[in-house]
Model the fold of this input.
Amino acid sequence: MIEAVFSSLDMEKAYEIAKKLPELDEVEISAILAVLEARKYDADVIAGFAKAILEKSRVELGRVFDTSGTGGDKSETINVSTAVAIATSNFTRVAKHGNRAMSSKSGSADVLEKLGIRIDLSPEEAKGLIEKTNFAFLFAPKYHKEFAKVSGVRRKLRIRTIFNVLGPLVNPANPERQIIGVSSEELLKIVAESMEILGRKGIVYHGNGIDEVSPFGKTTAFIVENGIEKIELTPRDFGVNECKIVPCKSPEESANRIKAVFENKGLKEDFVLISMNFSLAMFALGFEDLKENVSIFNEKVESGDFLRKLEEIACRSTSSSSP
Done:
C-alpha cells in the first residue's frame, strides 16, 4: 500500500488507497499521510479520497450550505468560519462540518461547545435541528467512524495532512454550495478543481497567509460556478479599513470574542474579520455586492439577529434527546 503512494496516483488509485486506509496499522497510516504531504497531491487524488470517505458517511439534510477552512495556517485566528456559519444560517440552511483542533488552537467543535451548542448530534437530531433553526453541526468523528484510527494518527502527528484539505470536501450532507478557506495559495486551484470534480459550487480562497479572507493585504479566490474563475480582493472591496489580526489562544477565548461581536461589543479587528468572511459567504449565495453584504452584517449585529440565532441553536441543540 505504501509503495502505491510513491507511484503515479490518479483518482481511482487514490480512491482505493483511501478505502483501505482504515484497515492499516498506525505506522502505515502515518507513513502514507507523511509521504502524501511530502510529494503533494493534485485534484484527482483529493477527489478520489473524498469519494471514498463520502461513500460511508452520507446524511440527507436537503440543500445545504457550508463554510469551512482547511486549517494548518498557524495564524491563531478566532474560529471565523464557524461564526460565519452561524451568521449565514439567518439566510440559508447551513450544515457545518468540522472536528476538534488537530493543528490549531481551536477547532469548530471546540468553539461550538464553548458557545453552548451540542456537537454530537445523530443524523436524525441534525435533521430536526436544521429544520427548526437552519443550522446543524456534523461532528466528523461521529459521521466518519470508519476513519477513527486515521483521526487518532492525525492527532498524534499534529501536522497538516491531506485530511486537512479533505475536511471541507467530505461533509456528509454533501452541500450544494460552500466556501473553503485554504492554508496556502498552492492549494487554491487544486481544491477548486476538486470541488468541480465532486459537483460542488462555491468559492475557494486564501488571504495573505491565512485560510480566511484577510483584513490586510490581498485575498485570492477561485469561484467555482460553471467553470473556475480567479479573482483578487482587498479590504477596500469590502468597504472596510485594513487591520491586523488579534491572536486567539483557546476555544474559550474564541467563543467569548465571537459572542462579543454578535452582542455588538467585540473587538474592532474581530468585527472586520468576521464581516469580510460573512460577505464572501453571502457572495457565494448570490449576494454579489460585497460592501452591501458587510452592511447587512452590521445591521444584523445591531438588531441582535445573530445573537438570537446563536442562542436559539444552543437552546434547541441541548434540549434534543441524547444520541
In short: DSSP finds 15 helices and seven strands in the chain. Residues 65-139+173-317 form a domain with the Pyrimidine Nucleoside Phosphorylase; Chain A, domain 2 fold (CATH 3.40.1030.10). Residues 178 and 314 are 23 Å apart (CA to CA). The first strand starts at residue 65 and ends at 69.
